[in-house]
Amino acid sequence: FRTIDQLECRGKRVLLRADLNVPVKDGRITDLTRLDRLTPTIRELADKGARVIVVSHFDRPKGVRVPSMSLAPVGEALAGVLGHPVHFAADCIGPEAEAAVSALKDGEVLVLENTRYHPGEEANDPEMARALASLADIYVNDAFSAAHRAHASTEGVARHLPAHAGRLMQAELTALTLALEHPERPVGAIVGGAKVSTKLDLIGNILGRVDVLIIGGAMANTFLAAQGVEVGRSLQEPGMHDTARSILEQAKARGCEILLPVDAVTATEFKANAATRTVPIAEVPVDSMILDCGPETVALLGSRIGSLRTLVWNGPMGAFETPPFDAGTNALARMVASLTEAGTLRSVAGGGDTVSALRHAGVMGKMSYVSTAGGAFLEWLEGKMLPGIQALDALAGIVLPR
Ligand code: 3PG
């Protein structure tokens, strides 16, 4: 696809759509991963002599100027990560943005204010797209994690400028394509999290693509209960039992092996350091909740994953934010990391909770690829075409899902 490989951009104004939507707590940025992952593209463009104009949304101000959602502090953090000064303009379109762009010299970097301060961004207003495009000669999209949004800065603007994929976009698309479109087989997926209902499209899309599907987290409780297993007071969705049974049947028909927990860590109350009981899955006490998978499950899954060549991971195995219910996810994460390090497994993970779980387990850097995307990663796994990617023309070489 059209990358920045051959891009001649000395003296050119490059509008770089980044995802500067970093996590913030009490006004402080809690994780710089998205900024770190952006630096190769910015450095490469700046080294080639481009005038780099970084544009992004931040949080959800819904078309108004919410001061706490300004990108100014994120611009400063980006300067720190880059080790390179970064200018800032207090608007992303209009006179202020235009003046800041005109003042830019070759190799300099400018961050524009939050695109979502303008209602035209989320409405994908053609006027907003034109105004953004008028600032630049070339468009580079490095925001895979915002590519599921058909907004002015992710989709509309690509109609007005020569559009290219940045290095991070390229890395995300390559990793996901190798994991799901052209995986080395056997390929498996871990799908965890709380609700089957939020992952139905995802399961539907990957059933026909993977050889093994591991279902974990509270989602697994619904599958167990649907088969008549007593799950006590565990979180589950009684309304999804028919769906769960039909997924199990479809999987059988399509030759996809589904693995569910064979034992569970249970407690009568859900709180940190609660007293726990580990039981076979058929012996969950009626007054208890399943809050993590047990050691037998970890061993079974570990040995099954050991025979895979590719693994896609979305969603934790238990309530990992509340120890001791992090043990199952941690142990599985460490197994996946060691198989990856041994070179027998390509492991690709993504989605907000999954990334926190891997970080919690201390294996973030040990996976083959960890996506920076939350919603966009999910939509990709659901087989949806992402508008921000569709808008990048000439995607030859990447076989996109449906
Ligand atoms: C994300 O954090 O997943 C992206 O930045 C998209 O943010 P949004 O869900 O507010 O569109």
Tags for this model:
17 strands; 6-stranded parallel β-sheet; alpha/beta; binds 3-phosphoglyceric acid; cytoplasm; 2 domains; kinase; nucleotide-binding; Rossmann fold; EC 2.7.2.3; 14 helices; 402 residues; Phosphoglycerate kinase
CATH class placement of the largest domain: Alpha Beta
As a percent range, the share of strand residues is 15-25%
Main sheet overview: 6 strands, parallel
CATH architecture of the largest domain: 3-Layer(aba) Sandwich
Strand order of the largest sheet: 5-6-4-1-7-8
* Structural class by helix and strand composition: alpha/beta
Care to count the β-strands?
17
Gyration radius from CA atoms, angstroms: 23 Å
Describe the global form: elongated
Helix fraction bin? 25-40%
Low-confidence stretches: 394-402
* CATH superfamily label of the largest domain: Phosphoglycerate kinase, N-terminal domain
Distance between the termini: 17 Å
Please write out the topology:
Elements: E1 13-17, E2 24-25, E3 28-29, H1 33-47, E4 51-55, H2 72-82, E5 86-89, H3 95-103, E6 109-112, H4 119-122, H5 126-133, E7 138-141, E8 163-165, H6 167-181, E9 187-191, H7 200-207, E10 212-215, H8 217-226, H9 241-253, E11 257-259, E12 263-267, E13 277-280, E14 289-293, H10 295-306, E15 310-314, H11 327-341, E16 346-349, H12 352-360, E17 369-370, H13 375-381, H14 387-390
Parallel strand pairs: 1-4, 1-7, 4-6, 5-6, 7-8, 9-10, 9-15, 10-11, 15-16, 16-17
Antiparallel strand pairs: 2-3, 12-13, 12-14
Helix pairs in contact: 1-2, 8-9, 10-11
Bound molecules: 3-phosphoglyceric acid.
3-phosphoglyceric acid (3PG) binds at residues 19, 21, 60, 145-146, 149, 374-375.
